[in-house]
Specification:
The protein is mainly α. The chain is built from 15 helices and 2 strands.
């Protein structure tokens, strides 16, 4: 019997390296082809390579990036969802977003972009230490919006990677979407920078693969135990407290109470429209915040604590608060 047909409990006892999953023949192979096509469409000579590992990452000295193994087989993707409630990069769109982000780190490593004087002026010093946590400003227009949790605000290298990813995406219309935003200057710089290097062979080219899936001895069970422990120890986003004060957790909610994540997903468009018309906030920003609320509500399994109409009002008030508290609450922005 193939491992993909095993019951979950038996599957969890298999060492990851014994799964035998590869990029070849998986949906990831076609997505990597699409990524290379995007580089080609931009006229870039550089092509990142990729390998399967335990997470998304790009080693600081490599011109490629790792993709989590659970995206290489539908059974492993389902297992990831059952264990972690969501799959990072589980949809084709989400996967491509992450690939573009990691490819940005790879092209930075290949050309040493972070050492350029103008790069430092635009994004900051890459030598700034990564912080274990950061408090983003959801209202800031100094950064692009790409990955969740306003990741571009976490570090200069992530600011560049997020900006590059937005620039690379076909049909992004970033000049129109970010018109009037200071972040537009970053996108324009990336556009100029890529024009400068596109015909130049990368000075650095590696094939190194850190922690390839073929060398991961631990079982799926130990992998998920460690992953859950890490998530449990991490600090929660700034608005988690407001969500749990406004909506009920499973222990205090009525058993039949609808889940908040599904409710927000159902009412996302009218909720964004309502708050935008009332506050004048940018709809793109509001939509981004609602998506973050959905992720956190799903993770904590929050439920509605009032009627659906009352919950919609609560969600509108909370959304207004979440997109204004950093603007008026005296929180310092993350500066370069």
């Amino acid at each position: 019997m193939h491992w993909s047909d095993l019951p979950r409990e038996k599957l969890l006892d298999i060492p990851i390296r014994d799964l035998g999953v590869t990029l070849e023949g998986s949906p990831l192979e076609g997505r990597l082809d699409d990524l290379n096509g995007e580089f080609e469409a931009k006229g870039l000579r550089f092509r990142p390579y990729a390998w399967l590992s335990t997470d998304w990452f790009a080693p600081d000295d490599a011109t490629g990036f790792a993709i989590p193994f659970f995206l290489a087989h539908p059974r492993l993707t389902r297992l990831e969802r059952s264990q972690m409630l969501e799959v990072e990069g589980g949809s084709a769109e989400a996967c491509m977003k992450l690939m573009r982000h990691e490819a940005a780190h790879a092209i930075d490593n290949a050309y040493g972009l972070r050492r350029k004087r103008r790069w430092i002026e635009v994004f900051g010093k890459a030598s700034v230490p990564y912080r274990t946590s950061y408090t983003p400003d959801p209202t800031s227009r100094d950064f692009v919006l790409h990955l969740d949790y306003w990741y571009s605000q976490s570090h200069p290298l992530e600011d560049f990677a997020e900006t590059f990813a937005v620039w690379l995406r076909p049909g992004a219309r970033w000049r129109k979407r970010y018109a009037g935003w200071p972040a537009l200057a970053k996108l324009q710089y990336v556009d100029e920078l890529m024009s400068e290097i596109k015909d130049t062979p990368p000075p650095r080219k590696t094939r190194r693969r850190e922690e390839p899936v073929t060398q991961v001895k631990r079982t799926l069970r130990s992998y998920y135990a460690a992953k859950k422990k890490l998530y449990a120890e991490e600090g929660t986003p700034a608005f988690d407290g407001q969500l749990t004060r406004t909506f009920a957790d499973p222990a205090s909610a009525q058993r039949s109470a609808p889940r908040l994540a599904g409710f927000l997903r159902q009412h996302r468009a009218p909720l964004v429209k309502r708050v935008a018309e009332t506050t004048g906030q940018h709809r793109y920003l509001l939509d981004h915040v609602v998506r973050e609320m959905i992720v956190r509500a799903k993770t904590r399994d929050l439920r509605l604590s009032t009627s659906k109409s009352g919950s919609l009002l609560d969600a509108a008030i909370l959304l207004t608060s979440l997109t204004s508290q950093f603007l008026y609450g005296g929180h310092a922005k993350y500066h370069r």
